[in-house]
Amino acid sequence: MRATFLFLCLIAGFAQADPRGDELAQAADRQLHGHGDSESRLVMTLISPRGETATRELRVRSREQDGAERTLMIFDTPRDVAGTALLSESGPQGEDQQWLYLPAVKRVKQIGSRNRSGPFMASEFAFEDIATPYWQKYRHRYLRDEKCGVLDCHVLEREPLDENSGYSRQLVWLDRADKLVRRIEFHDRQGNLVKTYTATGFQRHQGRFWRPAEMLMVNARNGRQTRLAWSGFRFGIGLAESDFNQNALQRVK
């Protein structure tokens, strides 16, 4: 009986939230949300271990509604992927949903929850990395403060609550001044470091919305990299709800 009681106490201890970790995660979340709608341009560069590159150009649109966000990514170049589009729907509760339109077969394919850990369009970003994150979908723990480059940062550990996530945990570096996510280390289900994300060149748009100019994902296993270069941010442009559903995927231009 005593052993059982101690075991239950241990489980309860692990389940307890870390107030400081949650507080910092919420502060970082506030930098991502509240923009209403937006659009931007994106250049995706795939980089091989030998330094060979392949470039893709995209348009990205997003719209917030009822506490959730939908994001539409449309490939314009190169020709073999032009017209391919990914629609992601994410929110603080429930499973994220994603649909991929493939123009070659004129078909919309839903990305199943068990497949979201797979690579997005041959990049080092997984489908689950593309969906807008919400702090409620992780268990957080504050670890320490330390330098990250020239900045002072908080370091958090977060564990995905989604049992189908490809990650067991992520280490997140937030700068202390603005609570912007500067670095993430992703660990697989076996606890091994699988890739590292860094964000640089942050700019504040309209005096409120922080966005990075560049994101870099580096695969620790094979040396491949994917660089995302962002530009042309516009906010509050009046995108319609009808632009963010499965039917809209087949008529994107």
Key phrases:
disordered N terminus, 253 residues
Give a verbal description of the structure.
The protein has one domain (20-249): outer membrane lipoprotein receptor (LolB), chain A. 13% of the residues lie in helices and 47% in strands. It has four helices and 15 strands. Strand 1 and strand 2 (53-65) form a beta hairpin. The longest helix has 14 residues, at 2-15. Mean pLDDT is 91; it is low at 1-15.
Short description:
With 253 residues, the protein is mainly beta.
Q: Kindly provide the name of the CATH class.
A: Mainly Beta
Q: Note the total helix count.
A: 4
Low-confidence stretches: 1-15
The number of domains is: 1
Query: How far do the termini sit from each other?
Result: 66 Å
- Overall body shape: globular
Question: Mind describing the biggest β-sheet?
Answer: 13 strands, antiparallel
Kindly provide the radius of gyration, computed on alpha-carbon positions and rounded to a whole number of angstroms.
19 Å
- Strand residue content: over 45%
Strand order of the largest sheet: 6-5-4-3-2-1-15-14-11-10-9-8-7
CATH superfamily: Lipoprotein localisation LolA/LolB/LppX
